[in-house]
From TrEMBL:
<dbReference type="InterPro" id="IPR036890">
    <property type="entry name" value="HATPase_C_sf"/>
</dbReference>
<feature type="region of interest" description="Disordered">
    <location>
        <begin position="1"/>
        <end position="57"/>
    </location>
</feature>
<dbReference type="Pfam" id="PF00512">
    <property type="entry name" value="HisKA"/>
</dbReference>
<protein>
    <recommendedName>
        <fullName>histidine kinase</fullName>
        <ecNumber>2.7.13.3</ecNumber>
    </recommendedName>
</protein>
<keyword id="KW-0902">Two-component regulatory system</keyword>
<keyword id="KW-0808">Transferase</keyword>
<dbReference type="InterPro" id="IPR004358">
    <property type="entry name" value="Sig_transdc_His_kin-like_C"/>
</dbReference>
<dbReference type="InterPro" id="IPR050428">
    <property type="entry name" value="TCS_sensor_his_kinase"/>
</dbReference>
<dbReference type="Pfam" id="PF00672">
    <property type="entry name" value="HAMP"/>
</dbReference>
<keyword id="KW-0472">Membrane</keyword>
<feature type="transmembrane region" description="Helical">
    <location>
        <begin position="96"/>
        <end position="117"/>
    </location>
</feature>
<dbReference type="InterPro" id="IPR003660">
    <property type="entry name" value="HAMP_dom"/>
</dbReference>
<dbReference type="InterPro" id="IPR005467">
    <property type="entry name" value="His_kinase_dom"/>
</dbReference>
<keyword id="KW-0812">Transmembrane</keyword>
<keyword id="KW-1133">Transmembrane helix</keyword>
<keyword id="KW-0418">Kinase</keyword>
<feature type="transmembrane region" description="Helical">
    <location>
        <begin position="157"/>
        <end position="175"/>
    </location>
</feature>
């Protein structure tokens, strides 16, 4: 990338969280010089929307040596040939069907015409008759019939081939037009996610089977949207209801700790309860933010990711951190359209995650800019080694490295889940990869304005 500090990881195995499309991008470890190793979002393995890890190498069945040829390979070739019709698109299959039916009808018509013409020629030129030309030459009725039939057959076959080719081409366009509503259904289904279930196909046209399919799909989307909305409302309402007693508990504990006559034992218990209450409050705030980020965006304004990152880093510098970490800024302009508050939470969660899961004396790199036509923010941190197979699980709620659904003093376990939901709401992509020497590199790409 020219003019941007956002860099990509080289030599790493990219891992895609559950909401990302195929491919991955990550940051280059510090100390490496040279240009970026390639465009972000390089194609990966697996269909869009699925979790996948790009791997290398080959696998062989037990007792089979790579490169060995034999009867099994020929059987596989025959099996592939038999499955060719199943791999053809519906448009191509309809075109072949239209063409085959046209040629079949043409051959049948040619055969009937051949019989009729022969009958006519037999009645016009009965056996034993002929034609004598002025120059004295004579041609029999059999020769006349044979000559007429050969010329008719040759020219009819040529005409059938020419018209048949035109019919196949027209059949292709007719099939394409007939299947265009299905293409619209497919495109809508590909765009849909948990935060875009409000979209509908709304197909106009005659009340045929395709419109019935589109209406059924819209009804299913309506039910799914209602279910997700009900779930988000429940999480939001429950979180709001839990905030009040937690706030009351915090106030009572703080007031009790200010009493000079409180014993040391009670003071220790009060501080422990206060810390536990603070963790629960962070959990509730995280649930509220997660519920909000999973809704459709109601605010869309231009936001420069460099300004957002600078604000987040300024706030982080003012807070007391659990360990001593050096933060490096590499910020250039990258403007996207979205909710500035959610974008600030996105960057804040990435930075907090990089600091909390780091070692004393560790380092964090925060980069923003434009990469491969996307506004990009990238956070890279040192720390413990993260296995590639664990990365995809870190984006699930309450999942932590080497600790499944266990309470942790480092956070509520919702940071990367919120990042994923905010990115999804902004129609972006998030990629993660383990960093050489330990740590993690997370790259978020959002559409430019």
């Amino acid at each position: 990338m020219d003019g941007s500090p956002v860099r990509e990881q080289q030599g790493e195995t990219p891992v895609r969280p559950s909401v990302t499309p195929p491919g991955a991008a990550a940051g280059r470890p510090p100390g490496q010089d040279g240009p970026s190793g390639g465009p972000a979002g390089a194609p990966g393995a697996g269909p869009s929307g699925q979790v996948g890890v790009v791997t290398t190498g080959s696998f062989a069945m037990p007792g089979e040596r790579p490169g060995e040829r034999g009867d099994g390979e020929r059987a596989s070739l025959l099996s592939d040939l038999r499955t060719v019709p199943n791999r053809m698109s519906v448009r191509l299959r309809l075109t072949v069907l239209y063409g085959a039916l046209f040629f079949l009808a043409g051959v049948l018509l040619l055969f009937v015409t051949y019989l009729l013409l022969r009958s006519v020629l037999d009645s016009v030129f009965p056996a034993g008759t002929g034609i004598r030309y002025p120059n004295g030459s004579y041609i029999t009725s059999e020769e006349i019939r044979d000559l007429a039939m050969r010329r008719m057959l040759t020219r009819s076959v040529l005409a059938l081939l020419g018209v048949g080719i035109i019919a196949v081409v027209m059949g292709y366009f007719v099939a394409d037009r007939a299947l265009s509503p299905l293409q619209r259904v497919t495109q809508t289904a590909r765009r849909l996610s948990e935060s875009t279930l409000h979209e509908r196909i709304a197909l106009d046209g005659p009340e045929d089977e395709i419109k019935e399919l589109a209406d059924t799909f819209d009804a299913m989307l309506e039910r799914l949207s209602d279910a997700f909305d009900a779930q988000r409302r429940f999480v939001g309402n429950a979180s709001h209801e839990l905030r009040t007693p937690l706030a009351i508990n915090r106030t009572l504990l703080e007031v009790a700790l200010t009493d000079p006559e409180v014993s040391d034992d009670l003071r220790t218990v009060g501080r422990t309860l206060l810390a536990n209450n603070a963790r629960h409050e962070r959990l509730i705030e995280g649930l509220l933010l997660l519920a909000r980020s999973e809704r459709e965006l109601t605010t869309r304004t231009p936001a420069d990711l460099s300004e957002v990152a600078a604000t987040v880093l300024t706030n982080v510098a003012r807070r007391e951190q659990p360990n001593e970490v050096t933060v490096h800024r590499e910020l250039t302009t990258g403007t996207t359209v979205g909710d500035p508050v959610l974008l600030e939470h996105l960057v804040s969660n990435l930075v907090d995650n990089a600091i909390k899961h780091n070692a004393d004396g560790g380092e964090v790199w925060v980069r923003t800019g434009v990469l491969s036509g996307y506004a990009t923010v990238q956070v890279e941190n040192t720390g413990p080694v993260v296995p590639a197979y664990e990365i995809e699980r870190l984006f699930e709620p309450f999942r932590r490295l080497n600790a499944d659904r266990l309470e942790s003093a480092k956070g509520a376990g919702l940071g990367l889940s919120i990042v994923r939901s905010v990115v999804l709401a902004h129609r972006g992509r998030v990629y993660a990869a383990p960093r050489q020497g330990g740590g993690l590199v997370i790259t978020v790409r959002l559409p430019l304005t």
